[in-house]
Specification:
single chain; alpha+beta; nine-stranded mixed β-sheet; four-stranded antiparallel β-sheet; 8 helices; 13 strands; 30% helix; 34% strand; elongated
């Protein structure tokens, strides 16, 4: 059974939920095992369950077994969990959550992120009809340990003259942040291009701001280009370091990239699994 967390229950269950969030076998995403987000961050986000989000306690046979926090974006018919922390009877919890969200937002898309070590929850979501969308390795880089890396001259930030090359490389029309949207919002992004014999062969897109994040790495021919990847990532990291940021998170699906990230100083946090289900009211 799912019930909304009350103010009176917060102190009783929030610390228990944080312990689940920092235990790999029960953890979900966003991760509190990345060395960046703290207990205080967890508690502050959990309190949004009393305003614009919802925290649900999952009970089985009268005992609290799970803590689930989620929110919806009604205009996009979309919902996602902030935490999916269930100690046992996970399939029951997942079915109840899907039904609860479907009642409030019929037809919505529901996303749940899990730590890859949380095999119990992953199996439960798959039994409940969720589809695995992303399987990536989460990394953290702390810039107090970072040593700037020499960057080849054929890597540079995109200029106005390079925009057609970027459109060709970042050719994902079904992606929300497609080339046109990024170009229209360019002050909030950094785009790096790698050229070989004058031709742009790869692009790296990084979201700028207080929490920089590499959004995509695109290769013109489709095949992974290790030298392009290393060169563009180094240029991006050098700039983030120079700007005074303390850390950076990055999720990488390409196995060939993992040794390069380790070489550049990234620390592996764990594997990230993204699950999705299109909901119907039951």
């Amino acid at each position: 059974m799912l019930t909304r967390l009350t103010e009176a229950e917060f102190d009783r269950y929030a610390s228990w939920a944080y312990d689940l969030a920092t235990t790999a076998a029960h953890a979900s995403y966003p991760s509190y095992r990345d060395g960046i987000k703290t207990r205080e961050d967890f508690m502050a986000r959990a309190r949004r369950g009393f305003s614009d989000e919802e925290v649900l306690l999952f009970r089985h046979d009268g005992e609290v077994r799970g803590w689930i926090q989620w929110y919806a974006i009604p205009e996009e018919n979309y919902a996602m969990t902030v935490s999916f922390l269930v100690e046992s009877h996970v399939e029951e919890a997942a079915r109840e959550l899907a039904a609860h969200v479907a009642r409030l937002h019929p037809g919505a898309t529901l996303d749940i992120g899990l730590d890859g070590a949380n095999v119990q929850a992953a199996a439960a979501l798959e039994k409940c009809g969720f589809t695995l969308l992303e399987n990536a390795v989460n990394h953290t880089l702390f810039f107090d340990q970072y040593q700037p890396v020499p960057v080849p001259q054929d890597v540079a930030l995109m200029t106005a003259a390079d925009e057609s090359d970027f459109r060709r490389l970042h050719n994902w029309p079904d992606m929300y942040w497609n080339a046109e949207r990024i170009l229209a919002d360019l002050p909030n992004w950094k785009v790096y291009l790698h050229r070989q014999q004058g031709a742009a062969v790869a692009a790296l897109v990084c979201r700028a701001g207080d929490w920089p994040e590499v959004f995509s790495v695109d290769f013109g021919g489709g095949d992974f280009l290790p030298e392009s990847y290393r060169a563009m990532m180094a240029a991006c990291l050098n700039d983030i370091h120079l700007a005074g940021h303390s850390h950076m998170s990055y999720f990488e699906e390409e196995e060939h990239a993992l040794p390069i990230l380790a070489e550049l100083g990234f620390q592996r946090v764990g594997r990230y699994l993204a699950y999705r289900k299109e909901l119907k009211e039951e």
